[in-house]
Amino acid sequence: MTNSTKFTPKKAFVNSPASNGPPPASSPNGTGLPSTAPAGPLANGKPTPATLPDPDKYATVPRQHEAERKRLPIYGARQAILDAIQRNASVVIVGETGSGKTTQIPQFILEAGLAKYGGIAVTQPRRVAATSLARRVAEEVGTPLGKRVGYTVRFDDKSSPSTKLKYLTDGMLMREILSDPLLHRYNYILLDEAHERTLRTDILFGMLKEIQQTRRQMCKDRKAQWYRQRVSDEARRGSGPPAEANGTDLDLGEHAVGGAVSTDAAETISAGNGQPRFVHELKIIIMSATLDAERFAAYFDHAKILYVAGRQFPVRVYNSLEPQTDYLDAAFVASLQIHTEQGPGDILIFLTGQEEIETLEKLLTDHRALLPRDAADILICPLFAALPPAQQAKVFNPAPPNTRKIILATNIAETSITLPGIRYVLDTGVHKARGYNSKVGIESLLVEPISKSSARQRTGRAGREALGFCYRLYTEDSFMALEEDSVPEILRCNLAAAVLQLKAAGVRDVLRFDYMDRPPKLALLRALEQLYSLAALDDTGALTKLGTWMAEFPLDPCYAKVLYESRALQCTTEIIDIISLLSVDNLFVAPFHKREEANEARNKFISPDGDHLTYLNLLRAYQAVKGDIRWCHENYVNARGIQHALEVRKQLRQVCTRVGMDPNVSCGVDLDRVLQCFVTGFFHQTALLQPDGTYKSVIGSQFVRIHPASTLFNSRREAILFNELVFTTKLYVRGVSAIQANWIPEASPNYLKRGQPKSKLAPSSSIE
DNA sequence: GAGCACTGC
User: Fold this and answer.
1) Which residues form the Helicase C-terminal domain (predicted)?
2) Is the pLDDT score of A331 beyond 50?
3) Is A447 left (phi over 0), alpha (psi -120 to 50) or beta?
C-alpha cells in the first residue's frame, strides 16, 4: 500500500479560503461555520427583568462551583433563557460543546422555581453521559446524588421520590412512557443531543409532541369544567357569574385556584382519591449542537430558537489540494508530516474500523524507527469499541516526555469519548455506517462519506483546549458535495422494535404518526408485517396480548417471542442465558497479536450445533469457575462483556417473574428444544443447504454465507437459523445454529405456507 | 476468513 519513499512528507495541504479557514471572529464555535449564531453569549429576545420565585431553597449544603458556573458562557443568558421557557411551550436551544447548556439550563429552571408541578427530565443518548452529568450537577446543587438530582439508566437507578431533576437515557424515558403515558410526573423535558437523531430521540420527538398536545387540551378542559362548576355553584347560591371570569371567556388566565393554578396548570375538579391533582402543560426543550435548528423549531409548532455560544477554541481547517486515492496512505503521510513540522499536541485520526486502524498502527510503528534521532517520539494508540477496555484506557494516559500521541480511532471519538490534549485532527471523510434495506430485509455495514455536520464535529475535536488544526484528507469541493446532515437512524434500520414500542405506548396508526422524518411506507409495512408474523399484532394491526407481553421486555421482538415460547418448550433458563449473551457484541476478545491463542481458547466451548449452544457452554464454564476474572483473561473472554450479559440475565429473570413466568424451567440436556425454541422467533431468518454446499435463505431466496466468526463457518448442515443478515464484503449470516429443516414450517405454519401472512396467527399457547 | 457507534423494567 505504501513504501518508505512516501515518508518524505509531501505538502498536501494549503490554507483554504475563508469559508474553511480560520473562522471569523463572530463564529462562536471556531469551526468556521457560517456565523448565523449572533455574537454574545446569547442573543434572541432581550432579557426581561421578570420577578422570579425565590432561588433554590432546597439546597442542603452551600452550593459548589458557583464561580465556575458563572464563568460558563451560558450563565449570562440565564434570564433570557428563563424568559423564553416561560413564554413558550417548546424552545430549541443551539449550543456548542462547552456551553454548559446541559448542566446549567435544568439548574436555572430549578433555581427559578419554575418546575412547580413536576420534575425535570434531561435525556441523553448514552448511559455514561447521563450518569456523569447527574453526578456533576448534584455536586453543583450541593445535594447527595439521588436526592434532588439523580439519574436513571438501565441497571442503575439513582433517583428517589424527592428527585426533581433527573438525567436519563432516551430509551429509559421511552420505557417511562409505557407506565406513565402522559408523563405527568414531569413538568419539563429536555431532549439533549437532538442533532444525533438516534432512533429513540426521533421516536420521542413524536411521542412528546403528542403528549404535550394532549396535556394542553386536558388543561383547557379542566379549566372549562372548573368554570362551569363555579357558575352552577354561584347560580345555586343565587349570585351572578364568577367575578373573575365574566361572560363566556373560559380562560382563567393567571387567576389561581387555591393559589396554585396559573396559565399552564389547572386543578382537577375531582381526583377520585380526594387529593387535589394538577394537570399541567408539558414544556419541551430541544438541545442541539448544530445550527440546523429551524427544522426542530418547525416540527415543534414554531418553537422559539435560542443560540448559545460555546467555549471552543478556533480550529484552522485545511483541505487536501487534490483528491486522495488512498486515504489510509494519505493519513499515514500527513500524520508524519504534522509530527515532524508542527508544534506539540496530540493527533487524532478518524478511520472507519478495526482493520484500518491495525494496518495504520503497523505502518506507523514500522516507521517510528526511521524518525530522526533528535525528533520527538510517537506513541500510537488504537481506539475502537471492540478493543479490550484495558487498552482503551491507554488513550487517556498522558504521553511520556518528548512524545506525541497519535490516536487512531473510529467514530467512537466523534461523540462517545472525549479525548484530552488533541490539537491536530486528521479527517479521512469516511465512516462505516449501518444501513437497512427493508425491501429485502438485509442490513449492511459499509464505508460511506460522512456528512458536513459530522466533519465539523470531527474538526471541533481539535479545539477543546487550545487553537487547533484540522486536516481534511479530501478536497474542498468534496466537502461541499457532502450531505448537510447524516441520515437519521430511523430511515436506515429495521423498525419492528420501534413500532412495537409505539403500539405499546398507544399509537394506533403508526403510518400516520407525526415523524420528524417519516420512514418510507414500505419500511413501516415490513415492520408491521414482521410483528404480525410473530403474532404481536392481530389482523386489524392492534397489539395482541402477546404483543403487550413482548413490549414488557427490553428485547427485540424476535427474542421476546422466543422467550415467550420457552414456557411451552420448557427451556426458559437456557433461553434467558443465551439471549443475555447475544446482547454482548464482543464476547470473545482477539488481541491483535494473539489471534491464534484466542481462537484455540474459544474452541474449548464450541458446540457442534453452533453459536447459541456455544454461548451456553461458555456461560456454564464461567459459572463453574465462579466468574474468575483471571479465567476470563486466560480464555480470551471479554470479562466486562460477560458481566453485562449477567446483568441482562438478571433483569430478564426479574421481568419474567413479574409477568408470571418461571425463569427456572430448564430442559436439562435436551438442548434440541432450545434451538427449536429459537426457530419460533427466527423462522424468517433460516436458510437451507444447497447441493453445491451454499446456503439459500428460506425467505427471499438469497445466497448467504456463514460469517467467519461463527462456529459453523465452513460447515455444512441441513438447515441453519441466524440472528443477523449483514452485507459487508459479502452477504453474511451471524449468530448461527444448525436446525432441522422440518422445524421451520412447524414454528410458523401459517406464515410460511402462504408466503405472506394473510390470516391472524394465534400464539401457540395462551396468556392468562 | 472478519467485527462503525449506541440503547432497554
Assistant:
1) 327-506
2) yes
3) beta
